[in-house]
Amino acid sequence: MGTTKFLRRWLPLVILVVIAIAAWQTARLSDTDDAAITPIDYEADISTPLISARRVPETLRAPVIDANLAPSIDTIVDGSSGFAACVTVEADDRVIGEVAAQVPLVPASNQKLLSTYAALIQFGPDHRFTTTVRADGIITDGVLDGDLYFVGGGDPFLSTDAWRNQFEERSGRFHTRLEDLADAIVDAGITQINGSLLGDESLFDDIRVGPWAQRLIDQRQSGPLSALTVNESHTAWPEVFTSSSSRSIADDPPTNAAAVLASLLTERGVSVGGVGSGVAPVTATLVAEVVSPAMLEVITHVNSYSNNYGAEILVKHIGLATSGVGSTRAGADAMLDILTRQGIDTTGAVLDDGSGLAETDRVTCRLLSDLLDVAGPESDFAQTLSIGGERGSLFRRHDGTIADGQVFAKTGTLNGVTALSGYVYSPSEDGFFVTFTYIANGELAGINEELRSYQEPFVEELATYPEGPTIDDLDPSPVVPDGP
Q: 432 near 392, Cβ under 8 Å?
């Protein structure tokens, strides 16, 4: 436990004891006038002395309710024996328990807490991404004698209804309908494109993957990265989502995006000469556009469903905004600077991507705890996280338990890594919450279901906070005057 938090926890009680002793010594040693002493009324109600530990009930209550969480912290720590692990549990700015909080570990998708929070700070909750269609040529009676450019604005969730419909649970899966853009082109009066529909991805670099292990690329843990993508750069997928490896990805994201839009236009009676990719001339004129949901909703999609693609696109946006370079490296470097400027302890951090697929990433539990503290449990950011029993990657966890609807957290899983960090709100006392972080690292095949099984009871035990005597129980009784 840090010195500052130790003093914050125990100093009020120590001072109170010192004051009480000093008052007793003063009364014992002082000269008194026996005749002036009022006789004791033994029938008077018992009252709380003016100098009493009961006059700071929160100070008295804290050690009791904190101690009630100790067994659950011990259990998850003991369960992680043999692994590199860190844990922090805090409440009311007090450290209730922590283990190896400053040890840098592979965070898996807990990395998304960093990238999404940095994006929120950089752009604000209302920022939106705009995708445009521009004409290079003359439009006469609905016929474009030239090319139509589909210009990417880095919208990670520009997609078709067919893509979204594969997901059983859609709450919080915000997206931008490509069908709306097709309708806007038709509404602009275009009926025929004599040239080609060309995808323009020039906003970002053309590096398709992060610094990831080949097995993760082969598993299609993220679609190919681009400033212009449709359906996260996928070309085919099952009707019902099963796993990322069951999908097919596009070798050329901007051309694939143009082909999907051309198909929608054809369905609407618009003739398209061909598809491809290219950079729109500065003289190309605006024909139509479509705007993404607000940044806060984009982040909700990323955090609730641990969406790797969205996190990586946000990092490229951060890089572009801060250095003029829309790359993963530029964005990751800027993330670290943004977090540091927010007063978050980034000691030991190594940030190489936005999603946490990079096994070279290193994050401490202290960093995650600081970030959650700075953001705050009542913040918009807290509301973007997965919700136990209700939404996202925690949808099937805690259902029907004390933590149902009370835990807002970010999950994280890689081979050899499990992580979970967030807030647990008290279902019984308004305003009470616990902030927690947990990361465990092992060998590639070392993190098994038994280790993960400790997480749910751990979180559900945190939901019992503040179990123990209430503040009303510890409140001082009214002072009863001595004497008649």
A: no
DSSP of 413-447? EETTEEEEEEEEE-SSSTT-EEEEEEEEE-STTT-
Is 112 in a helix, a strand, or coil? helix
Helices (H), 324-447: 328-341, 365-375
Contacts (Cβ under 8 Å, ≥6 apart) of 264? 160, 178, 179, 182
Whole-prediction pTM value? Answer: 0.84
Q: Among 276, 293, 310, which residue terminates a domain?
A: 293
138 plus 101 within the same structural domain: no
Residues 6+ apart with CB under 8 A from 107: 356, 361, 362, 363, 368, 412, 417, 419, 439
3-state secondary structure of 126: coil
Give me the tens of pLDDT residue by residue for the chain, a chain 484 residues long.
444 444 444 444 444 444 344 444 443 444 333 333 334 333 333 343 444 443 344 555 566 677 778 777 888 878 777 789 999 999 988 899 999 999 999 999 999 999 999 999 999 999 999 999 999 999 999 999 999 999 999 999 999 999 999 998 889 999 999 999 999 999 999 999 999 999 999 999 999 999 999 999 999 999 999 999 999 999 999 999 999 999 999 999 999 999 999 999 999 999 999 999 999 999 999 999 999 999 999 999 999 999 999 999 999 999 999 999 999 999 999 999 999 999 999 999 999 999 999 999 999 999 999 999 999 999 999 999 999 999 999 999 999 999 999 999 999 999 889 999 999 999 988 888 999 999 999 876 666 677 777 899 999 999 998 864 444 444 444 444 554 4
DSSP string, 197-226: EEEE-TTS----S-S--HHHHHTTSSPPP-
Contacts of residue 117, defined as CB under 8 A and 6 or more positions apart, other chains included, come to: 339, 371, 375, 381
Do 232 and 339 lie in a common domain? no
Phi first, then psi: what are they for 355, rounded to 5°?
-90, -25
Residues 313 and 200 in one domain: no
Helix (H) or strand (E) segment spanning residue 410: strand 407-414
Give residue 51's identity as a one-letter amino acid code. I
Looking up residue 210, the CATH number of its domain turns out to be: 3.50.80.20
What is the extent of the structural domain holding 28? 3-55
Query: Token match 């190594």: residue?
Result: 350
Which residues have CB under 8 Å from 4's CB, separation 6+?
Answer: none
- What single letter denotes the amino acid at residue 338? I
∠180-181-182 over CA atoms, to 5°? 90
Q: Are 452 and 439 in contact (CB under 8 A)?
A: no
Number of domains within the chain: 3
DSSP letter at 232 equals G
